[in-house]
Amino acid sequence: xxxxxxxxxxxxxxxxxxxxxxxxxxxxxxxxxxxxxxxxxxxxxxxxxxxxxxxxxxxxxxxxxxxxxxxxxxxxxxxxxxxxxxxxxxxxxxxxxxx
Length: 99
Known about the structure:
Layout: H1 19-32, H2 43-64, H3 73-88, H4 90-98
């Protein structure tokens, strides 16, 4: 609450350079049972789009040698964790069943 008019800038955006940090935030939100209205909208669904983007990227490199074949260490670490979360977490599993 602010007693005067104010302009607030939020930081709700996703990127590939800190997937681990973003997944840590979602784990904390799960543990602390944050109300859905305060969560990043469609985070689980967005995670599936991220995986599809990287799948296509890596497949293109493998098949045609096209694209940037270098993934940053942070991306690889994040993707490994994301794959794990998509396979183990009930919230992420629920998204599979809805597909």
